[in-house]
Each structure stands twice: as structure tokens, then as C-alpha cells.
Amino acid sequence: MAEMEEQVKPISCLHQEEDSEEEPKLKYERLSNGVSEILQSDAASCMTVHDKFLALGTHFGKVFLLDIQGNATQKYDVSSVKINQISLDESGENVGICSEDGKVQVFGLYTREGFHESFDCPVKVCFRPCPPCNFFYHLAKLLLYERNWLNRWKTVVLHEGEGTITNVKWRVNLIAWANNLGVKIYDFSTKQRITNVLRDNASLRPDMYPCSLCWKDDTTLIVGWGTSIKICTVKERNPTEMRDLPNRYVEIVSAFETEFFICGLAPLADQLVTLFFDEEDRARPRLDIIQPLPESCEEISSDALSVRFYQDNECRDYRLEHSEGESLFYIISPKDIVVAKERDQDDHIDWLLEKKKYEEALMAAEISFKNIKRHDVQKIGMAYINHLVENRDYDAAARKCQKVLGKNMELWENEVYRFKTIGQLKAISQYLPRGDLRLRPAIYEMILHDFLKSDYEGFATLIREWPGELYNNMAIVQAVNDHLKKDPTNSTLLTTLAELYTYDQRYDRALEIYLRLRHKDVYQLIHKHNLFSSIEDKIVLLMEFDKEKAVDMLLDNEDKISIDKVVVELDGRPELLHVYLHKLFKRDHHKGQKYHERQIGLYAEYDRPNLLPFLRDSTHCPLEKALEICQQRNFVEETVFLLSRMGNCKRALQMIMEELEDVDKAIEFAKEQDDAELWEDLISYSIDKPPFITGLLNNIGTHVDPILLIKRIKEGMEIPNLRDSLVKILHDYNLQILLREGCKKILVADSLSLLKKMHRTQMRGVRVDEGNICESCHSTILPSDMAQPFSVVVFHCRHMFHKECLPSSGTIPGLQFCNICSAKRRGPGSGILEMKK
């Protein structure tokens, strides 16, 4: 629970417990200025609130009109006794005042029109909230005053006979009043009383614990009496249920008991603001925000208010008034008036800062920067940074600098010097501005020097990440060289020095360092800055570092470093020369053709697996030289290929059979050459070698008649797997027969299908009309006089002739051919139609 501390100045009157982590919902301040002076010599008895001003009544019979800040703007001496009720109409132009001596005054604040009357007991007055300007008094009776057509006041008794009426609230056409028995609701538009809400605790004196009434909206009434609260909703009755009942009825949507006595009620959105009085030891009054539920309530917040002289007050001495337009709540006691209002974003940020929740405060300020008035986003951010530094969370503090300091270079430099003072330049270095907005070069140099003293890796990282324009490059180069004098082999410093040389466009110096270190970025440096002229004498170094990358780079830039130049440089390193020429050959078989002879020896020495593919693909390789090298090194497969390529197939086959002793390769070789004599040599060589005969029987069935081989096998020779080989031969033969039969069936079926198609085509009619001509005489094929007899011959090729224009039938009687198609050798067309008439 929070408590409001006693203060003289009109500042916040709310004090939360130090260990409370729940943010208060309301903030408080005393209504001071003129009010303080009034209450020093008098006491507040009642007050009413308008959007434009306040009206305060006192125990000495005076009424003060106040502005929102509490300054008195007007004073009325109404009576010598206590003012018990002030009522204002909706416009704020008419006021009704009642005092304990029974006097009633109703008058206009800006006109002389007025109404005065005296009763023999205390009364109270209430205005209709909207025109016309009607009002009523209530004591034992509820009297309505309204003007008749003669502009005279007419009195109507709305209710009587149930004791003193203690409170009345009027909303649109609904009037609610409380008497000793309960609360009544009256519909002014239909002149009907809707309902009676009974009082729960009849033992409480109404004058000591008065009923609190409050309209939440045009149809919702909140009733507080003693310790109970009821929320009543006025609803329209279904026309079918009316009969003699009122048009409206009331439903109690929520009813619950509270712990303390109720002094006042006010709505706050869907919640309630309640003013409570605790009888125990005359404790401070409490202002709670509660969430009504159907049969109970949930406490949202609770504040104990230290109003002046609260020890002398009773429940009836407190009142709660509210301004609907601004959500202002006025707590009135005899010697003090406190204003409660909803906390705004500035208040929320104040609370977060007080609780040292700086990150949340900064986030709230950034989101609502247009609405905050007392706070500045950057100042909150600086407070957050200071807090992080105090807690030695330097990395988080430096990270926030980037967001908080923004484009303020002066603040940036101040923070850098502060981090230098506490020895934490490393923390802030990665967050310094490095784009269009920059600090002075001296700032960056100071940080680089600091890293260079203690952290070579961090120094190298900054050099890579920071643009070279941020600092004086020459000064940093000199500093690095000074450190290298103490540690000349430090690879980190050497790499960083190369990068600095690159920034300074001294690429030759950078290249030397990269090559010495064998750094991976050397190739990127060469490409990026076109340093090929600088590496002509460093090709061996590049190849030793990374052969693949070096060769790719050299081949991609043949126009800058020629093939001949590379070969000369690599002449003393044949293993590197081979790598280069091999990749060159893979890219283009003809570019390095003059080095193909040399490549034979290089392949033989360093890369035999690729020798045979090279011999197959190269058309510029001297075969005699290659054969000589292969024979010297006893490369059988390569020698076999060269012999076959040179036309000496018999010698090649002999090497396969004698040296490799591989019948499968021999058969494959014979298949490739497809030479009958070679097959004969293969059979002759294999006839006395049973394993070779088995291999031949298994593989030559489709190339040589197996009978020729079988007949030449000597009787009694044991041949391994002979049965399986013969079965395979027979199976292959059957397979060939089946394939032939299948092909024959397909051929016959296709032939028959095509023949039928041709027959259908030839049986179709051919259109002959005046547009056709004789291909011999070139006159119209049809005579002009169709009554005359004529004869026309039409061939399948669609050429047409007059019969008399055709030559003789030729050697075959009755068979005629199209002269045009026969002359063009497109095959004769036989006559398909002879038209006669």
C-alpha cells in the first residue's frame, strides 16, 4: 500500500513503499493557491466540478468559484451556516446553492435572474444536466421545479413518504435518489419509476454513512452504501413483456462487499475509483482502483492519503468528485483537497528511473517521444550509460552509446575520453562512428595506439574494420614499424602492416609481406590492384604457396603474363611446370601445343595416371618420342596405345597377351580395331592357353563365329568353365534369334500398316475443277463446253493430263506413268483416275 506524505508545497502527495515493484496508477497533488488560504480559516463542506471551473462550499456559508489550479475567481456570501450542496447545470452558467438553515438560491452566474426560497429544514438541490433548466429540491419530499408556458415555476412532487432523501443524481432522462430504504430510479421521459434497489445494511445511520451515487454512462448507475457496491444497468423491456410494467427495467450486473466504508465513487474506463474510510484508529482515507466482477472485485491499486487533520474526520466528511473530460478525481476533506489524476508517460518514466529501470525508461521515451514533456530521450540514455558504467558493465554502456549519442559528435568525444580515463577504450572502439559522421582523427589514433600497446589481434581487427580515412595512415604505419623492431616475426603485425600499405596504395610493399607470410589474401590483392607486372619474378613463390590458386590466376590472365613467360620462370621447377601445363592442356588442347613433347616426360615423371588421357587427347604429341619414353619406362598400356595409333596393332596385341596377360583387354582391343586378322592372331595365340580360351568363348560370340574357335581346340584339353561358356554361347545365339524374330515381326507389322495407309490414300478422290491445267499442253484441264466428250488422266502425284496429251503406255501395256515425276526421278506415279465423258 502506498501512503501520501504530508507536504506543504503542491507536489506529488503519494509515497510508494520502497520495496514495491508495482507502478502506481494515479498521481496526487494538493489543490493549493487560493484553496490553502480559504481552508486555513474555514473548512470545506462540499464541492462540485465543472470542466471549466470548481465551486467550493464552506462551513461558514461561503461559496468560492475556483479555476483548475485552485485560485479563487469569485466569492459568494450565501449564509452564516454550512453549505451542504452546490449544483451546476451542464453549461456551467447556472448554479444552485443550499445551506443548513434551509435557504436555497438558484441564479445565473452571468445574469441577474434568480430564485430564492427558504425551508424549515436543510435541503439539497440538483440541476437537470441538459436544457431546459429544471431542478429539484429534496428533503422528505423530492420536488421538481420546472417552468410552465407562462414562464412561471411549477412544482411537482416526484416522491415522498420514505424518509429523508440524502442524494440525487440526474443523467439525461434518468433520475436516481437515495432515501432511508434504498435507491430509486425514475424515468423522466415516461414519468415512471423503474425500480427500487434495497439498502443492504439498514443498521448504518444514513447521515453518518451517506449513500454514494454515480452515473458511469447514460444507462449504468453505480451505488455505494456502507461497505457494499452495486452496479445497475437500465435496459429496455421487450414490448411483449410490458403489460402494465415500465418500459425499462434494471439489472444488477455486479454486487460485492468491500473491506472499508465507502465515501465516494467514480468511473475510470471499465474500472472504479473508490474512496474508503477506515474506522479503526481514524486511519488515513484510501483511494483504490478496483476491477468489478459479477460477485466480487479485483484490487488494481491502493493508496493511503495523508490529508491534513485526517485524525479528526469521519466518513461523512469525505467526498469524491470527478471531472469526466480529463479523468481528474478530487478528494475533499474539511481541511484539505487533493487532486488525483492518471499518470502520463512522463510519470511512467519518472517511476522507471526511480526504480533504476533505465532500459525500460529509454524504450518508453523512444516510443512516446512526441508525447513526453518533461523528459528528453538523450538525457535518459545518458543516465542509462552512467548507470551501466557505475555497475562496470562497460560493454553494454559502449553499445548504448551508439544508440543514445547518435550524431552528437561532442558527446561522442566526451564519452571516448571518459572510457579512456577508466581504461576501457577497447569496449567503445567497435561502436565509434565510422560512416559519413566521424570524430576527429586523433580520437581514432588514440584508440589504435592503445590497442597496439596491449592487443595486437584487436588492433588488426580495427584496421580491417575501420576505413583508412578515419586516421593518419602514415602515423600508424610508423607505430607498427616501431613495434616490429622489437618483434620482427610477428605475423599479426606484419599482416596488419600489409593492410596499411594497401590503404596507402603501396601495393608492392604489401605484396612482399603477403608472399613472405604466404597469406591467403595475396591473390585477391593481385587481382584487385592489377599487380601482375610485380609478380613476374615471383611465380615460383606463388606456386609454392597455393598451386591451384596460382595456376588459375595465371591462366585467367594470360594477356598479362604470357604462357612462355610462366614456362621460363618455372623451368627450374619441373613439378610446378607440370601442374601449370596440365591445367593449361585441360582448358585448351591447342594453346600449349609446342610444349606437348616436353609434357610427355613431365607426365611420365610426376603424373602417370594422366599420361594416357593426354596421349589420347593431344594431336600435337610426337608419337615416336612418346613411344620411346614409354618403352624406356616400361609403360605397357601407354605403349600399346601408341603402337595401335601408329598402325602396329599386332605388336600391340602381342604386348597385351604376353606382358599384361589380360584376355579381357585383348578382346576389348580386338573389338576396337574390328580387324579379322587381329581376331585370328588372338585365337592363334590363345589356342594353347585354356584360361584365354574361356575368355574368348565368353566374349567373341557377337564378333566371331564361335565354331571357328571350338573346332581348333585340341582334343583332351581341359578348359575351365567350358560348360558355362558353351551355355553362354547358346544363350547368346538364342537371344540373337529372338531379337531377329522380334525385329521381323515389328517390320512386317509396320509394312502392313504403311501399305494400308498408302491404299487408303490412293483410294481417295481427287478434286478436278476449272483451276487445274494439263501439265503437257498447259491449257485448262476441263473443256469450256462441258457438253462435249473429254477424257482426263490424274496421277497419284496430283499431276493431270488430257488423255490425248499423254505419250504411249511404254513397255508395259495398260500402265501409264507421270512424265514429270519420272523425269525428276521421284518415282513414277501410276494413273489413279481416268475421267471420261
Compact overview of the structure:
The chain is α+β, with helices and mostly antiparallel strands. Helices cover about 35% and strands about 25% of the residues. The strands form eight sheets. It has a five-stranded mixed sheet, with no helix packed on it.
If strands are numbered along the chain, what order do they take across the biggest sheet?
1-26-25-24-23
Number of helices: 28
Based on the coordinates given, report the CATH architecture of the domain at 27-161. Answer: 7 Propeller
- Which regions are unreliable across 5 or more consecutive residues at pLDDT < 50? 1-19, 826-831
How would a crystallographer describe the biggest sheet? 5 strands, mixed
Structural class: alpha+beta
Tell me the name of the CATH homologous superfamily of the domain at 27-161.
YVTN repeat-like/Quinoprotein amine dehydrogenase
Question: Which CATH class of the domain at 27-161 is shown?
Answer: Mainly Beta
* Shape designation: elongated
Describe the structure.
It is a peripheral membrane protein. Plays a role in vesicle-mediated protein trafficking to lysosomal compartments including the endocytic membrane transport pathways. It holds the Pfam family zf-RING_Vps41. The strands form 8 sheets. A 5-stranded mixed β-sheet has the order 1-26-25-24-23, with no helix packed on it. A 4-stranded antiparallel β-sheet has the order 2-29-28-27, covered by helices on one side. A 4-stranded antiparallel β-sheet has the order 3-4-5-6, covered by helices on one side. Among the domains are: 135 residues, Methylamine Dehydrogenase, Chain H (7 Propeller); 97 residues, Serine Threonine Protein Phosphatase 5, Tetratricopeptide repeat, CATH 1.25.40; 79 residues, no CATH class. Helix content is 37%, strand content 23%. A hairpin with a 2-residue loop joins strand 28 and strand 29. The protein has 837 residues and is an alpha+beta fold. It is elongated.
